[in-house]
Amino acid sequence: MSPMRMFFGLGIMVAIAYIVFAVGIFFVQPNLVYYPEYKRDITGTPDDVGIAYETVELATDDGETLHSWFVPAPDATATVLFFHGNAGNLSHRMGYLSMFYRLGYNTFIIDYRGYGQSSGVPSESGTYRDAQAAWQYVTVKKGIAPSSIVLFGESLGGAVAAWLATRKEPGLLVLASAFTSVPAMGAKLYPFLPVRLLSRFDYDTLEYLQSVTCPVFVAHSPQDEIVPFTQGQALYEAAPGPKQFLELQGGHNNGFIYMQEDWVKALGDFIDGNLPPPA
Predict the structure, then answer these.
(1) Which residue, 34, 149, 188, 222, has most beta carbons within 10 Å?
(2) Residues linked to residue 57 through DSSP beta bridges, in sequence order
(3) Which spans are transmembrane here (predicted)?
């Protein structure tokens, strides 16, 4: 076989392998985006840290049931509607729940469909439906004024919170270690693929921020090994004012706001300074 024919054959094999890999990425995307590990494993409850809470079985408008917790704080000055990241479940966010309680805020945290003890299978449109059901619960069932609600999104939850903020009128939006969009994240992970053509997900936090009208608090770490620091900076630049950027320290999964008292104070000061006083 001539060298030219061998080279041509090798090129064909590489092209086929590339196409197969790209097709594979297209079909396995839900497994790359969602990590509902420990699906039925609730590792603890607020009771374990001495905080009373209510278990809520939240119904969505398409028939799913979301396992949720409402954690009331004495004489609460705000209510945090919390949307967690793409891994684990609500019981892995105990540090956040304790922080909000200490700051004097109620918290309502949900597990998306397919996570924790919630029914269904996660999807982008599904997480948005879940967010709407959560908003309906706190504003209608609990009678909490939208102006005193803080939408808090962690990582993937940042996109969910920002999406909801474009459709409702919350008092404030917090984005912690959030990305600009799934295609942007995919381009970072697979720079050799036409990710924007292959992506089945948007979660376009950056685009949603163009329509947000409430104050925005963005927190991100330069050491974040999953979501680039530059994406956090881009979200801050796109956000309306008033706004604040908090530079965290540590990786994506250990740079939590609640781990440093000065970070907690910065968040609390921003929330208290930008929400109306309680009635």
Answers:
(1) 149
(2) 67
(3) 6-28
Is the pLDDT at 37 greater than 80? The verdict is no
Q: Is 224 a catalytic residue?
A: yes
pLDDT tens for each residue of 138-147: 999 999 999 9
Decide if 199 is catalytic: no
Q: What domains lie within the chain, and their CATH numbers?
A: 34-274 (3.40.50.1820)
> Average pLDDT in the 45-62 region?
97
pTM (2 d.p.): 0.89
Cα radius of gyration (the chain): 21
Per the listing, tokens 């996570």 go with 115
Closest by CA to 130, choosing from 148, 122, 227, is 122
Which one of the listed residues 118, 155, 177, 221 is annotated catalytic? 155
Q: What are phi and psi of 203, to 5 degrees?
A: 40, 55
* Annotated catalytic residue, options 98, 147, 202, 252: 252
